[in-house]
Each structure stands twice: as structure tokens, then as C-alpha cells.
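> tool_call: predict_assembly(chains=two)
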Amino acid sequence: MNKTVNQKAWFFVIPVFVLVAFNAIIPLMTVVNYAFQETFGNNVFMWEGTRWFKQIMLSERFHASLGRQFLFTFIILFIQIPLGIAIALTMPKEGIGVPVCLVLMSMPLLIPWNVVGAMWNIFALPDIGFLGHSLNALGFDYNFTQQIGDAWFTTILMDVWHWTSLVVLLSYAGLRSIQPAYYQAAEIDGASRWAIFTKIELPKMKKVLTIAILLRFMDSFMIYTEPFVLTGGGPGNATAFLSIDLVKMALGQFDLGPAAAMSLIYFFIVLLVCWVFYTLMMRNEEKS
Amino acid sequence: MAKVTLKGLSHSYLKTQSSDADWAIRGVDIDWNDGGAYALLGPSGCGKTTLLNIISGLITPTKGDILFDDKVISGLNPVERNIAQIFQFPVIYDTMTVYDNLAFPLRNRKIPEEEIKVKVHEIAEMLELSSTLNNRASGLTADGKQKISLGRGLVRSDVNAIMFDEPLTVIDPHLKWILRSKLKELHQKINRTMIYVTHDQTEALTFADQVVVMHEGQIVQTGTPVDLFEKPKHTFVGYFIGSPGMNVLPCQIKGNDVIVNGKKIETHQKIKKSNFNKTEVGVRPEFISFSNEGIPVKVLSVSNTGRHKIVDTESETGKIKIIAKSNEDIPSGSAFLKFKKEYTYTYGDSWIIE
């Protein structure tokens, strides 16, 4: 079949191009601009080459916040993914329980980030907060504003509370799409509950779980508002994740060059991890 | 291997039942001999899958008993009943190889690995899956996957019965024929009780020695394919089996006489009683011929299928189809029809009068 050549069709792409230019390309290019130059205001720029990148890559401060970031992301993935699957498995499959559970599950997802941070801040206050006060009353020495372990514990608990529902909803959708015949066949084949989970449910949930892990990785890797409101990155720098550290550098210290370089490195890490993860999952898919 | 008996089986998906329509199946009695090939035939929604799932233990019936070899097994789960079931859509374990899929039911039953190996290779040989044993099962075509489902049912040598729930639905037409012959061949080879559910009369009639026809949750007739064709016990059987189905015409019964369109006709049975709400005469298109006298009709159309002609005619009380030889001359306009006495039956309230 011969395709009609019509270059006018490119005009249809213009609206999208303009939109993407304004919301992505131009801001990104501004950051690139800052990353290679030094400025003292008044629109005066001096070329610095790769100096800021070298500085960031070698800075201990960056290593520390990157390390904290990876640790945080791994911990929450490690908790939220299995917990989400477990909750989805125990959710009712029919009757009035289904809408009730779904609505209850969606609630945390509907609350704005800064509200979540503020809620947990008050909830966890050691003297008047319900959580903080109860823990202290039970004999734990709990104070998330002063103790590093408590700050991490509270931040992770908050994120688990806020986002496990997303994994639950995705897993539940995946589970519901499994045809009853699979369970019946497994029953007839004499499969144990564990075998049903590993041989039927997990493989069938693979696609939604890939999406769940990707979303949770990206969101948690870029987390800002909730820990900023809860702990402000403290005590000290204990919960200063990449984005918090970045904002401190850019707006607190006004080191625009290094901050821009850090943003780009940050951006490429997210891109790289997502790409590697997605490629691995999809390559597996092709094999089968 | 076992004899399967169903006694007074009824099932409803509702908690309370007020009318016959609330029952998915009602009052089913069946005796199936060990090693036989049986088909459950009926249109969608007639209760055949429900019945099958009751036998396999996936559904607990509201009333009645299931017996294997005269022992009541109603309370047992599918594993304890030791049956195999093949579903409409191929069920395979995606992440496993073909070999592991076939070995799965055996591994779950803690059978030694050497024994499994022998068994799996034997079944793979039978189903022509040997060359793909080490492939991932998810890469196979629909018929390959259905063969795996089939293989998982056959691999256990001690199953009481193998049940098929419309297993060829997703298979391409040209492969359907091959797989069906394969099933028939397997049945002769392994000689196990096989129960085959389908809505396709060709599948049922070619596979089974005994066909059970279901209609609205009830068994309307059990018999060999020939029985069902030559002597339908219910107008539904006459209409459902055969192509085109049986002609059913309203009739009056006066004493011992059967009257259709004002003409007395001869039927197979002697009529003894006639206290029915509705009486009908049924005769297959194959057993009607044109004649100089008989039921007056108007010939509407003739379609030639190559092997024979199907003639549509209209009588006073309804349309009548006739199958005539392809070289036969068909009268046009008005004609008279003669029904073959041995194959003409009277039905009272849809059931044959005997």
C-alpha cells in the first residue's frame, strides 16, 4: 500500500509541541542554563563548564542526601508493596463490603500532601499528639523532633499510611481480573493456597505491580511536601531527602549553579532507574 | 474410575425459591456407567455448567446427592472427589513450562519425581506436546494451551471422571475437528468416565455414546444420538437437535384420532389419554414427503444445499419444513404433505405421549 505524503500534517503537532515546550522543555532548559554558568544577578552570567557537576558529584552532602533518599524509597517499597498485596488479598470480593473497602482505601489518597504532613505532625507531637502521647504513656521514649530514629519511623509510617492504598487498589484490580476458572482449575489440581498465590495470582498481577512499583518509586524518590511539613528535614539533616536538600540549596543558600546541576543529576537518576526497571520487566515479558 | 449417579439433584443460586424459574437445575437424576463417554447438551443458560460444577464439587447443590460408585460424596471437595475438569478457556500456569504445567497436579499430590516424569512424557506423547515440553506455556497457541489443560486432567491415572466444559469454544474450527477426534481416541485408550458439556449438537453427537439433553434446568431426554434424532421425547429435543429441527404443529386429539389442520393423521403411538393443555404433533423434515393427498400446504421457497433441498411450506397452522432429495421435483404453489407414520409423534404439554 502506498502511503500518502502530506507534510501539512505536521501542523497538527504544533499545539502539543507548544504545550510541552512551555511546561517541560523551556523550564528544563533554564535549569540547564544555570547548571553550566555562574550568576550574581542582574542577568549577568559567566561560563563555568562542568564545575558545578563535579562539585555536586564529589560533595559529601549530596552523597548523604542521596543515600537517605535511596534508603527511604527502599524501605517504603519493601513495606508498601507486600502490605498492599496482602490487604488486597483479604478484601471482600462481593457484597456491600466491596464499595465500603474501596472508599475507605481511597480516602488517604484524596488528602493533599501538606495536609497529610500537618496531620501527622500534630498526631505525632510527643506532648499533645495522640500517637506521640500514647507512645510515651506506654513507656517509649518517643520524640520525632529530636530523635533521628523516631523521625524516620514517623516519616515512613506517614508515607505507608498515605500511599499503601494505591498499591492495594492496583493489586485489587489485578486480582479481580483473574477469571474464576483459574481458581477452579487450581482447586481441582489440588494446589495449596501458597501455590495459588505464587503460580496464579502473582503472575497475573505482574503488570499492575510493575506500575505500582514504578509509581511508588517515582513518588517516594521525589517526596518533598510531607516530610518538609512533618520534620522540615530534621532533626539536623536526618530526614533531608534529595528534594528537601535541593530546595535548601537553591532557595535557602541561593546557590543556583550547584542546585541546577543537582536537579539535573536527580532527574537523570529517576529516569535511569525507571528505564532500567521497566526494560527488565518488559524483557521478561517478551521472553514468555 | 467410577460410576456417577445423581439423585434428585436441584440447585438454586437464590436463597429462597418461589417458582420453577428460580432453580438453575431441578430434579436431575442420572446414572452414568464407569468408563462411558457422555455429553450434556443444551443451550446457554440451561444449567449444564452448574450441573458439571456440582459433580466436580465446585458448587454445593441445594438438594440431592451425588454418588461415585454408589458412595455418597456430596460433602467432599474437588480434591477428595478426585476428578479432573477442563474449562471453556484454557487455564495454564503462565510462569511454568509445559512440563511443569503437566506435572503440577501430580506434584501437589506429592508423587515421586521419577513417576511424574514417566507420566508426563506419556501424556505429552499422546497429546503431541513432547517437542514443546521445555517451552514456557504462555507462548503457546490457544489449542496448544487447551491441550495442556487437557493434559493436566489426563495425567492423573486414578481420576474418577474427566469433565469438559465446552472445551473447544476458543479453538479454530479446523483444529476443533482434530482435537475432538483426539478426545474420542483418548477415551478409547484410557477408558475413563468422560462427561462433556456443550451447546453444539455436532460435538455432543460425535463425542458421546449417551447424550443428555437439558432444557431450563431439567433433563428432557437421555439417549444415544440415534434415539434423540428418531424419537425426541420433548419438542425441545426435536427442535434443538437436527438441522433444520423438527416441525411442531398444533393438533387436536379426538378419541384415538390425531387431527392436524382438519385432517386425521397417523402417528407412531396409540393415544390413550388426552387431558393436556396443549397438544402438538412433531415430525422431522426428513420424514415428510409430497403426496397427492394429506396436509394441504403452500410452497414458499426451496433452498438447495447441494446434498438435499430444504423446502419451506406454509400450512393453515404454521410453517412446515421438508428435506427432499436434491434431484426431486418440488411442486410449486399448492401441494399435499404426507408424514411418515413411524416417525410422527404426538406431544402433550411438550412431552411425548406414550
